[in-house]
Amino acid sequence: DTGVSQNPRHKITKRGQNVTFRCDPISEHNRLYWYRQTLGQGPEFLTYFQNEAQLEKSRLLSDRFSAERPKGSFSTLEIQRTEQGDSAMYLCASSFAAGGEKLFFGSGTQLSVL
Amino acid sequence: GEDVEQSLFLSVREGDSSVINCTYTDSSSTYLYWYKQEPGAGLQLLTYIFSNMDMKQDQRLTVLLNKKDKHLSLRIADTQTGDSAIYFCAEEDQAGTALIFGKGTTLSVSS
After folding, report:
1. CB-based contact B98 A55, cutoff 8 Å
2. Between B2 and B110, where is the model more confident?
3. Per-residue confidence at A56, pLDDT binned at 50, 70, 90?
4. What's the pLDDT at B11?
5. With an 8 Å Cβ cutoff, are B42 and A107 in contact?
6. In chain B, whose CA is at the least distance from the CA of A96?
7. Whether A101 and B102 lie within 8 Å, measured CB to CB
């Protein structure tokens, strides 16, 4: 068990560019979550998958955001036409849905949009 | 809607006890959670309590739950400088599928 892995750790991009982040959950965890955290705030829920199905999306997830989890393993989060307001830490978490949402978080991808 | 409130800062001296408080809104939350975040890192699950319990003790950590007042607290005994971090309280959303976090309490421990 190597924990939840996220890549890259840091991403700097220019406004208008597209970016993609990857998350590798703990193996055998069937739920995978994306959260966003800005300075001085707690993590805010964006979306979650159970296996390969995307079951819930927050209203925070605009049309420019898309997440996938092909084959129910790793997941990608893409942001198209980035805006400065997208600058944040993007956190991935996974859990095994057997009662109680004991989420295990990765170290996050810090996005800076210039 | 769901909301979790925490005080923003707590400063203690090494060896003292720390008590971090939280209020939440969703009484249907089956579990309530405490997470710890160190600088530049993701969140680490510290402990959690089942909603039917009043108290849970885990080594230096004690969680107290007052379900009537929707109040949760985390007590850290013999606080160490390594306990300096941001502590987040979290409840489950009404669908029971995601966690709602507070803004976090920054704990500063001085030697």
Report:
1. no
2. B110
3. confident
4. 97
5. yes
6. B97
7. no
